[in-house]
Amino acid sequence: MPTTYLEFEKSFVELDKRLETLRQITIHSEEEQTECDALEAQCRQQEADLYSALSPWQRVQLSRHTDRPYTLDYIEQLCSEFVELHGDRVFGDDPAIVGGLARFRGRPVVVVGHQRGRTTAEKVRRNFGMPRPEGYRKALRLFHMAERFRRPVLAFIDTQGAYPGIDAEERGQAEAIARNIREMSRLRTPIIVVVIGEGGSGGALALGVGDRVLMQENACYSVITPEGCAAILYGERTPERVAWAADALKVTATDLLALQVIDAIIPEPPGGAHRHPEETFPLVGEAIAQQLDALLQLSTDELLAQRYTKFRRMGEAVIVAPTEDPRAEIASA
Question: How far apart, in Å, do the first and last CA atoms of the chain sit?
Fold first, then answer.
């Protein structure tokens, strides 16, 4: 049962409690089993109705949900023989980014991703998933290791952004992000990126240059948070302004697929990854496996050429020739 409920999920509180109580008791009769099955069906239907009609701002809230699986959860469920590696060989280790060597369905890979932390102590230790430069340099070290040993890279994105503190700026935050973007763009091994939660700004892009960029249904991916956008444009973070900014930024998976920023959407179970993580892991694993099998059929030169073309075509503008009388176009609008 979830431990946290967002405002629009409050209708599930009592239903979940009743269902949990029924699951904990021993069912002795057919009537009790029927009641339990009916309650589960009611819960599933309510989930399907609610989560199929979410606003962009509600999806942003879901992407930050503390019960969503994090990078280490996916590594544990999808990979075997994981050996975590630490440090950037320059300054130190950044717990906001985790990574190492593993096997994905028997195939050697390098996995890297943001890690937020759930308990208060872990959130503080991992800086709420906001990396410092040493985190990005650790990731870069792992990318180069993957290239050297010809291992595909699996990168999981889940951060509001890079840490903006003075210590991070002193150690070259912008340079570290820029270097990662450059090096990933020409890394001579397949890269699959999965946005599993919130993908924010350069903090996400530093792990986000992949041959395939996948995105979970209730994740978000944006140049800035809706709160930050509202504060810059309006000087205020009222709920109305923040919700408007989330819609205008086109942060949802559906919007980004239409804009060709991502390559595919990974569906989530009705109710979302935070309510049904056990059903979420196979969906993510299967999506990664399909893309990885396709990428491994390409030669290195084909891989790099397709990656270059993919990112070069982003942001293409369509130029519309003006009408002979611009006033007629304005009047018709």
Answer: 51
156: left (phi over 0), alpha (psi -120 to 50) or beta: beta
**48-77 in b/e burial notation, b at 16+ Cβ within 10 A?**
eebbeebebbbbbbbbbbebbbbbbbbbee
DSSP reduced 3-state for 135: helix
Least-confidence region, from 26-35, 74-83, 182-191: 26-35
- The DSSP bridge partners found for residue 100 are 84, 111
In this predicted model, what pLDDT tens digit does every residue of 221-274 receive, in sequence order?
999 999 999 999 888 889 999 999 999 999 999 999 999 999 999 999 988 999
The one-letter code for the residue type at 275 is R
The residue type of 130 is M
Q: What is the pLDDT of residue 331?
A: 42
User: Residue 216 belongs to what H/E stretch?
Assistant: strand 212-216
Nearest to 272, CA basis, from 95, 41, 9: 9
Evaluate whether the domain defined by 60-312 bears CATH number 3.90.226.10: yes
Q: Are 88 and 94 in contact (CB under 8 A)?
A: yes
| Partners of residue 214 on adjacent β-strands | 194, 264
Two structure tokens written together for 53: 């009609």
Angle at 229 between CA 239 and CA 273, to 5 degrees: 70
Continuous H helices in the chain: 12-24, 30-51, 56-63, 71-78, 120-125, 133-148, 166-170, 173-185, 201-205, 226-234, 239-248, 253-258, 277-295, 300-312, 326-332
CA–CA separation, 213 vs 231, rounded Å? Answer: 29
Please choose, from the candidates 4, 226, 191, the residue with its C-alpha nearest in 3D space to the C-alpha of residue 113: 191
